[in-house]
Design brief:
The protein is α/β, with parallel strands linked by helices. It is built from 16 helices and 19 strands. The strands form three sheets. The protein has an eight-stranded parallel sheet. The structure holds N-(iminomethyl)-L-glutamic acid and fe (iii) ion (FE).
């Protein structure tokens, strides 16, 4: 099966098989009038239409990109997708002045979602997650990371991860599953965090590994959650299973999370609002991708991550939704890109790299995903816009016209197609 994406005003894409940093963070190639040829799951050609017609036979199918812009499918490298229950009541409480921490201390927050998720069946989690993947796809996301972490006991974590696996088998969005029993200390272990860390190592990690349910692990390293020492113990254990390492680091306080991510060879460190200069230098030296989550800053009305310092220090920056019911309830990467510009001072080209190639690198997939180049997987988005800058400049609306995943049209004219 061959597919030709033609008629676009431009193709806009980063290039390469690894993350881009520093000046490279904004390196987007813009090819006016270019076409993209997909053969099977792969891209066979990106470039001049006349050259294509000389070199290749006509394609089986043509996707009309007239007047639009073609960009790589977005990769969302940090979400908490398989959750049950919503916390919209916390929204107005925060507007009335209560803080996220106060609400959590009063029985809301993560623990409320843990209770709802523990009470849900695996089938219910599958249905909820499928709808979220639909919304991601409609907004141009073709690959997403997704974490457990609302079970916080063996069966609950397994249920979330099994639901993810079942969901992934039924949906075109590619899912990178991350085990996160280290998301919070569950209520029943509140007074014995070390005991819970031991339980994770002895009982929960081995059960997840035995079913092959995760490819990575994540820990919330934060005051009152997991200390750097507990985080180190959890992640050292996770390494035994060959899982990639992610970290929620320096979100609410400067705890040395960035330094720890570098020390442990993490593929990504998220949040980083309070990362120290030494931590940022360590991330750059170790090649850790910084996953910035401006949706959280916007939603909780807090400060934004120091994106300019990260870029100037040579840390590759990726963007993610952090889609979860408490601190950032959105599936839209374009919304996140706009917030990264208007809240954190990123440039539009930098956000496109952050939402594609660098995000793919955070998930260990930059060799296959994240850019439009011959040989890469054919994951692309046709925007109803004359340039990629409209993704952030024309904010709060969905500009996605078509989406192609692995060479197959899965969104056509703004609607799910054959999904
Ligand atoms: O990534 N930082 C910790 N965890 C989530 C919030 C989860 C929740 O509030 O349910 C986050 O922001
Ligand atoms: Fe998160």
């Amino acid at each position: 099966m061959t597919l030709l994406v033609s008629g676009a005003s431009a193709v806009a894409t980063p290039r390469g098989r690894g993350p881009l940093a520093g000046a490279g963070q904004g390196a987007v190639a813009v090819l006016p009038g270019a076409v993209v040829r997909c053969e099977g799951e792969r891209i066979a050609f990106v470039g001049d239409a006349a050259e294509h017609d000389r070199r290749f036979p006509p394609a089986d199918d043509v996707l009309d990109a007239r007047g639009g812009t073609v960009v790589p499918g977005f990769v969302d490298p940090h979400t908490h997708l398989p959750f049950a229950g919503y916390r919209e009541g916390e929204f107005d409480r925060r507007l009335a002045g209560e803080s996220y921490a106060q609400i959590a201390a009063a029985g809301g927050g993560i623990v409320a979602t843990v209770a709802a998720t523990r009470a849900a069946t695996e089938d219910e989690l599958v249905e909820l997650t499928l709808r979220r993947l639909d919304r991601q796809l409609l907004h141009g996301t073709t690959t997403t990371e997704a974490k457990s972490g609302y079970g916080l006991e063996r069966e609950g974590e397994l249920k979330q991860l099994r639901a993810l696996r079942a969901t992934a088998r039924r949906h075109p969005v590619e899912v990178a599953a991350t085990a996160m029993p280290g998301h919070e200390v569950p209520p029943e272990w509140r007074h014995d965090g070390d005991g819970y860390v031991e339980l994770v190592r002895r009982d929960i990690h081995p059960a997840i590994a035995a079913e092959g349910l995760a490819e990575a692990v994540d820990v919330f390293c934060e005051q009152g959650v997991f200390s750097p020492d507990q985080t180190r113990r959890l992640l050292a254990d996770a390494k035994r299973y060959g899982w990639r390492i992610h970290l929620h680091a320096d979100e609410l306080s400067p705890l040395g999370g960035a330094e720890l991510a570098a020390e442990l060879g993490a593929s990504s460190a998220s949040h980083l609002l309070h990362a120290s200069d030494a931590g940022i230098a360590a991330l750059a030296a170790a090649g850790v991708v910084a996953v910035v989550l401006p949706g959280v800053s916007f939603f909780l009305r807090e400060r934004y991550a120091p994106v300019r310092r990260l870029i100037e220090a040579g840390v590759p920056v990726a963007l993610a939704t952090d889609c979860n019911p408490g601190s950032s309830h959105t599936e839209s990467m374009p919304m996140i890109m706009a917030l990264a510009c208007l809240g954190a001072g990123m440039r539009s080209d930098e956000t496109l790299v952050a939402a594609t190639l660098n995000a793919a690198a955070a998930l260990g997939r930059a060799d296959r995903l994240g850019s439009l180049e011959a040989g890469k997987q054919a994951d692309l988005v046709v925007l109803d816009a004359p340039s990629a800058a409209h993704l952030v400049y024309h904010f709060g609306v969905n500009l996605v016209r078509h989406v192609v995943k692995a060479g197959r049209v899965v969104v056509r004219d703004g609607r799910l197609h054959d999904v």
